[in-house]
Amino acid sequence: MKELPKAYEPGRVESDIYKMWVDGGYFRAEVDGNKKPFSIVIPPPNVTGQLHLGHAFDNTLQDILVRTKRMQGYSALWVPGTDHAGIATQIKVEENLRKEGKTRFDYGREGFVELVWDWKHKYGSRIIEQLKTLGSSCDWSRERFTMDEGCSRAVREVFVSLYEKGLIYKGLRIINWCPSCTTALSDTEVEYSERDSHLWHIRYPLADGSGYLTVATTRPETMLGDTAVAVHPEDERYKHLIGKTVILPLMDREIPIVADEYVDPAFGTGCVKITPCHDPNDFEVAQRHGLDKLLIMDDHAVINKEGGKYAGLYRDEARKAVVADLEKGGCLEKIEGHVHNSGSCYRCGTLVEPMASVQWFVRMEPLAKPAIEVVRDGRMTFVPERFSKTYMNWMENVRDWCISRQLWWGHRIPAWSCSDCGELSVSRTDLNECPKCGSRNLKQDEDVLDTWFSSALWPFSTLGWPDRTPELEYFYPTAVICPGYEIIFFWVARMIVTGLEFMGDVPFRSALIHGMVRDEQGRKMSKSLGNGIDPVELIEAYGADALRLSLVTGVSAGNDMRLRKEKCEASRNFCNKLWNASRFVMMNLHSEQWGLPENLELADQWILTRLMRVIYEATENIDKYELGLAAQKIMDFVWDDFCDWYIELSKSRLQGEDEEARLTAEQILSYVLGQALKLLHPFTPFVTEAIWQALPNEDGVIMTKEWPSVESRLVFDYEEARMERVMELIKAVRTRRAELGVPPSRKAKMIIVTDDEGLFSENEGYIKRLAQASDIEYAALAPESAAKMAQCVTSAATAYIPMDELVDLAAERTRMTKELAAAEKDIAVLTAKLDNPGFVSKAPEKVVAAERERLASLTALAEKLRGGLAAL
After folding, report:
1. In what order do the strands lie in the sheet with 424-426?
2. What is the pTM of this model?
């Protein structure tokens, strides 16, 4: 038998244990017809990233599930991998180039892409290594990358297939453009927030000189691209003007007045400027009325030549210049305060610019219909269920997905245009000549695909699709996905769409949605607030198991959590408690006879029943994805039932002369500890494995052992209830002694009044040891001197303890009298102080509040002392 060191030091054992798991191939999952499959694909972290608490949270949840299923006999596969993160990675590499005074254009497209690959090979594995320090039991032999050869092949197959079905098209549409990242963004990549802004009321003179229309706008600089003014067809104020024209101020261009039901007569003046290339609604109005479309900004939101004299100004500078000129020309009627809902880039925070652009789109409506049905009929479920409403609302109002990005890093769009005949060809293989005219004068589309396009294929591309591999047939669909609620639209919805379209089945049966990890004040962690917590530092300080417990306990699915370092300390204390309890058990194991004995004492029956109950409840909780609840129940069992009670109850037998009783206690301790370690293993893999390796009667690694199951022969409901009555009495006595300040070393005689003498007499040894009783008598009625005794009342008995055996009554009376006098003196001083209006009105509010709190505390103490004196 190995001896456990006196203290558990995570930093000394975690790396060795993890290496043992990896070297032993214990994370490897195989196609096995004799086992049920269970699979999870990791939400692939950005290759640019490093571990943050969000990663630590969702990977802990996944690891708990996969470790549990592995122990339950499933062939459990957890597929790891990283995302190429198109925008983020390109920005990162370009930042490095700028430090050298260079740009990507100095290298050209191919040279720059080679630089990014070099960067990926050098730094891209950082987050994977950090996931390993967390204990993640991924099958690293199957690690994938969204731009590896297999995933790239899958991406091209999906693109071409959707194009051939008419579900991918290229067209001019309004898209979200980030002037900083200089790329298009999908709707879900835009974060909206309310900002204080203004409404500028601008006069547009009628071309016939008969007056003017006043237009209210939140973006006066875009008027440079106006091609019409719209009014509601039923608006009596403007009906007579429909079909006439106005002169666009500053640009001196004549534009029509059109009628469209899009206009809200109640907003502003009821007249709306139509800027088709810089507003999605205006674009639709222009389409309906055949209006011109003028793009007035370049890729950096700088006014282009269409903006006349304002060309070369950034949009904010252009706004100031336009407003000044409108005011100078008498066209600015007024400016009002207005709260405006603005969108910003999810990546860099820059305000997005709605711009008309030729981009590639996925036609989402036909793909969304089956994706709606699978959630509606229960083939795929959200946990918690409320997120299905979030999903359904988005899917039922889905818009076409802009999938092209103006980047060099990513999956290049497999489309070629012929310079000679104009043919656009999409192909599964690279083209060298035009399929229509045979010309070799071809040019591939410059854009790459949205990163989320390749991520949407992750559940089946990682298993070998488009080939029908054995892994794909066996492990698809996966069991569950564990994303944060913020990427339901980015990722979850799109995986469901592509899974149904290309696999004919959902990509996963459940989506376990988790919340956000916030700081102790409930704030989102961010660089600007400086409140971020590095999980790697927490692991170094407290151990991976402590961090995992801190993240999962007390948390319910879908809800945000607050992480305090005190919680990590409490979790570390639990690991230490488990270590010390295990060390005690092993120090007291002397027999080589293992298994469960036949002659059980009441305490043995109680702990076994409690064990069976926690096995049943925790397993059920895990099956329902109630992981925080399962963790808490297991921890409560280990800390309270096993460590604080059963180990203490067993000490009298372990130290006694009865060999059979000692052997029974050893066997029960060994069995319960082993089962508890198995239950804890998915939550705290390192400390449980370290202890397991030292157990004398166990072999192999704990992660491959069978998950505990309920054995009806070990459930003793009646005996459990009887033992609880004994424990209730012990607790009551200990509580009373603590109230009286009696030291544990002071023993006292006890009289137990009960109608179940047999129960208490049979367990007298436990009562004497844990309730510090020197002698016990039993009676049917309360003793005549009961008034002079401490009384401990429970449901099954009342214990009477002579007060003079507990305390020196005279000395105690003197002490308490002095304490009461001092408290009453302080109460008088504080009361007078707080009754003084001058103090209350002039002193700082915090000082007054502190004094009131002190008075309340002293008043409570005085009442307690009076009660104690009365009892004496």
Report:
1. 424-426, 415-418, 442-444
2. 0.85
